[in-house]
Amino acid sequence: MNEGKELQRLLGFQLLMAELHMGNHARAALAPFGITPAKLAALLIVRDNPGCDQTALGQALHVNRSSAMKLVNALTERDLVERQPGRDLRTNALHITAGGRDRIDEMVRCLDEADQAAAVALSTDERLQLMALLRKIRTVRD
Amino acid sequence: MNEGKELQRLLGFQLLMAELHMGNHARAALAPFGITPAKLAALLIVRDNPGCDQTALGQALHVNRSSAMKLVNALTERDLVERQPGRDLRTNALHITAGGRDRIDEMVRCLDEADQAAAVALSTDERLQLMALLRKIRTVRD
DNA sequence: TATTGTTATACTCTATAACTATA
DNA sequence: TATAGTTATAGAGTATAACAATA
Predict the structure, then answer these.
(1) Residue A52: phi, psi to the nearest 5?
(2) CB pairs below 8 Å between A and B: how many?
């Protein structure tokens, strides 16, 4: 099958295909933990921003309040995150649980392995270059 | 909000975020045509591989037969693609329609514009470098 | 009035499994 | 037996709109 020169030329398409490739590896690596890459990303953000609220978490992940709530529900059901009283009575302060702390390092280690394996075609330099370029794309405001 | 050093370091996460950014631009640009980036990709593949069947289309897009059929249904409903008799009685030969040919160029032009606009932070060189690295990731077999 | 969390609902995308007709 | 298409169904993931409590 011929991908066609238009698709070859479109950055968005190449990005989508690469994301699919990496995402499949990542999902497979995290499946034994009953968690997805997006949920682990949410857990890491909660750990690194203790006391943050659901709306802020959603903004960091580019999903809305309602979707953020479902992510938090999934993480609390697995005893990885807790909702504690927030800065006012409307707001939840999100915190990683002790159990979450116990398990997060191995999850990250597995994800890291999958990440490296999926991009094994790249040298260390190329990998760093690619990360820098991907970050640079997002410097433009939406 | 602090993304945290683990997320910063994971290629898969940076890829996901960049894909989201580009994808949002692309979806907005194609919305007036009633089509999504994935469907336009399918249409381009059909155009560039006339007579291909649904299973092959699915493989090119990394979705299964059933999902490929739904893509083809959507494209035929919009009179962009036709199912013609294939190499045997089980198989469809997919072809772009005359109407599809009439409309595809403007769709690609709009997608192209959105693609460029979303990655405006990159120089021409950086863009080419990024595309080469993204393609290289996928050279490893799954 | 605006914001936070929540609920209900719906839509898109995708996968699995089973069916049919062909090979 | 294997393959191509199809159908029915289910599961993620996300969005919108409306509501209650609070600011």
Answers:
(1) -70, 160
(2) 185
